[in-house]
Amino acid sequence: MQCGLIYMNRKQNILVVGASGAIGSALVRQIAQANVRIGLHYCHNHEKAEMLKQEIAALSCEGILLQSFLDSDQACADFAESAIHKLGTIHALAFCGGKIDWIPWQQLDESNWQQTFFQHCVASVNIVQKLIPSMLAAHDCKVVYLSSISPKYGGSAKTLHYAAAKAGLETAMLGLSRQFCKDGIRINGVRAGFVDTPLQHEGRSAEELVERVAKIPLGRAGKPEEIASAMAYLLSEHASYIQGEIITVAGGD
Ligand SMILES: NC(=O)c1ccc[n+]([C@@H]2O[C@H](COP(=O)([O-])OP(=O)(O)OC[C@H]3O[C@@H](n4cnc5c(N)ncnc54)[C@H](OP(=O)(O)O)[C@@H]3O)[C@@H](O)[C@H]2O)c1
How far apart are the first and last CA of the chain? Predict the structure, then answer.
C-alpha cells in the first residue's frame, strides 16, 4: 500500500539498502510511484528482490537490483559505485539492512564486535561518504537510518554488541546531519521497537517471543509497514524542516 506522501517533482533516484528484508520491502512498497526509480539492494535473497521489482513495475516504478554483502570498506565502495553507475545521482538513501548475530555477551570476541559494528554503524557512514559528492551537486537530498530502541536499555544478554553498534549509528547519524545542514542534505533516523520479522524469530524461542511482546506498552509487536511509514515520511517533503532527528516507533517501549 502506498502512503501517498509527496516527493519532489523532479525524477528521484532512491536507494534502499536491505530492500529484500521485511522493513526494507515495506518501505519500497510505500515509496513506489511513477516519478521514482528505486535501487533495490539485497544480500542473499535475489528471488525476493526480483519479485519486489516486478511488483513495483506494476505501479510504473522502475526497480534496479543491486547485490552486495556490505561487510568491508571495499564492498561499500564497490556498492556505492555500482549504485551511481546504475541509477545516476542518488537523491535519497534509506538503510534498512543488517542482521543480528545472537551471541551471549560472555562469548563475544573481537570479530563479533567488528562485524556487528561494521554492519550496523560503519557501513552506513561509509556509503554516505562515497555518495556525498553527487548528493552535494544535486542538492536537496535525504538520508534515513534505521536504528533500534536497544541502545535505550543496552539490548538483551545476546544482543549487547548490536545495541552498542546501533548507539554508534545514532551518534554518527547526528554528526553527519550537522556536517551537511547548509548543503540541503537532510539526515534523520527511525528507532524501531520490536517488529515481527524473521530477524526476531532467528534469535528467540516461541516463549521468549511471547515474553518480549508482553513487555510492549501497546501490547503487540510492530508491523514492518509501521516502521516504513516513518521512514517514508522522513524522505518526503512533509519532513522538509526535520534534521538530525530520530523518531521512535516502538508502541510505547
Ligand atoms: N525487526 C525488528 O524488530 C527491528 C527492530 C529495530 C531495528 N531493526 C533493524 O531493521 C533492519 C532490518 O531488519 P528486518 O527486521 O527488516 O530484518 P530482515 O527481514 O531479516 O531483513 C534484513 C535485511 O538486511 C539484509 N542484510 C543481511 N546482511 C546484511 C549485511 N551484511 N549488510 C547489509 N544488509 C544485510 C538482508 O538481505 P538478504 O535478505 O537479501 O540477505 C535483508 O534485506 C536491521 O538493521 C535491524 O537492525 C529491526
Answer: 26
